[in-house]
């Protein structure tokens, strides 16, 4: 009993202390404290990240990898320190497996344009799911159209979970790639990614995991997962916008053709022939987003110091509390009731357009997302134009959930 | 009353009505009420060609030209947008193409609803105003 209490205390996230480290959360809108529940779109940034970004420009700014002066060396070290931090954060085997991109979208497009162009041929099949974000649909549609390949879609059930029997049926030796999200941005569903990867590998297909939503909530270990590619964005894990990561198994990345040509990615250039740089620089043409990449390390450090398990436990508690409270609201329907889900609540109220609720919540300084969340096929699956989505982060509180529930009740009263 | 005064008078009337409403709640309740009162557009007009597609909500707009004046009818699936649509119809319907084209619609600023025209709102309202002006321009060129 005593042991349990002690561990409960140890496992409790110091939320007010955490909140004090996020300056934006101190802001008011219309004289009301902001309740920020649009974390699946982007998270707020702690001082550690803001200071790292500022500090880079104040003290270190220089172009990387080429200069021999002190600043260039310091900037290069800082940039490469983030690569090492990412490697350890997601459990990659080597820093060469970490490619910096602008974000998840660019990471997926990189794979489609390199590995995809090299390995997808007429009649091949690429498997995605009905809950994919447009950024994990459109690049594959473009590739399939170009290569006369076939895009197949794993359906979801009414709870918003993948129908694994259908997935199994769709897999065949024709399947060359399974490109799938770990966590649904619209519904919060956590997919059984390990099973998916094993099953895909059994038919000889590679697996690209869209980790845009998962990385901030779950402990990611790419070697254990054994995925071939993993993509995520810095800004959804408390880091800056404009920097993201593509993880790829080293042998795979080495075998793939280059993406963009330019400086940094070359070994030697002559007008007759150009040879390319080694990994990871082969895929990092031009001057990268140095400052944001440097600051991404501060976000990773922040998450690791806070402890992903504690964050997860807190977010799960918020999810359980808010689900319970919201189901008490008349005519409110929650979309996405998977057994295994992250802190996302997507909902609709009978006879009310989601945008109307969003506008009225905004007037109460409550920030939620309304609309199709860039998952139009998923919305079609449920026969709805969109939802209102509240998504939680480590700094959200139970009081904020109460404010949301009160805000929804008030909005409904005004609208009906 | 001169023609240019027509719009000014209509806008002033709306601004005055809103000036009596103190809180944001009252303002939005009024807009919601206007949205509910606006007669729904006949199903026969709810055609693809009449849709002004926002990212989130949809607006339907129909225009007629009679005796030198443009008459608008509109609808939306979101009631707040519909209320704002109702205000735009109040101001612009029954005017000449010239008047519609010159309308600056400053009242939206005065009643504190400008944010609904922001690009991020994606509610079709901004596009609706553009479409109203496009109709006015089309009728003007037919007329002249």
Give the structure's gist in a few sentences.
The complex is a heterodimer of chains A (416) and B (144). Chain A is of the alpha/beta class and 416 residues long.
What would your notes on this structure say?
- The complex is a heterodimer of chains A (416) and B (144).
- With 416 residues, chain A is α/β, with parallel strands linked by helices.
- Helix content of chain A is 42%, strand content 17%.
- In chain A, the strands form 5 sheets. A 7-stranded mixed beta sheet of chain A has the order 4-10-9-8-7-5-6, with helices on both faces. In chain A, strands 13-14-17-16 form a 4-stranded antiparallel beta sheet, with helices on one face.
- In chain A, α3 packs antiparallel against α11 (290-306).
- Chain A is globular and about 70 Å long.
- The model of chain B has no long low-confidence stretch (mean pLDDT 88).
- At the A-B interface, α13 of A face α2 and α3 of B.
- Chain B: This is Cysteine desulfuration protein SufE.
- Chain B: InterPro entries: Fe-S_metab-assoc_dom (IPR003808).
Which CATH class of chain B applies here? Alpha Beta
Largest sheet of chain B: 3 strands, antiparallel
Q: What best-fitting shape of chain B do the alpha-carbon axes yield?
A: globular
> Any idea what the radius of gyration of chain B is?
15 Å
Biggest sheet architecture of chain A: 7 strands, mixed
CATH architecture of chain B: Alpha-Beta Complex
Q: Mean pLDDT of chain B, rounded to whole units?
A: 88
Terminal Cα span of chain B:
24 Å
CATH topology of the largest domain in chain A: Aspartate Aminotransferase, domain 2
Uncertain parts of chain A: none
Q: From the coordinates shown, what is the CATH architecture of the largest domain in chain A?
A: 3-Layer(aba) Sandwich
Please state the structural category of chain B.
alpha+beta
**What topology, given as strand order, has the largest sheet of chain A?**
4-10-9-8-7-5-6
Number of helices of chain B: 6
One letter per element, helices H and strands E, the order of chain B comes to: HHEEEHHHH
Family (chain B): Belongs to the SufE family.
Protein name (chain B): Cysteine desulfuration protein SufE
Domain Fe-S metabolism associated (chain B): 15-134
Organism (chain B): Hydrotalea sandarakina
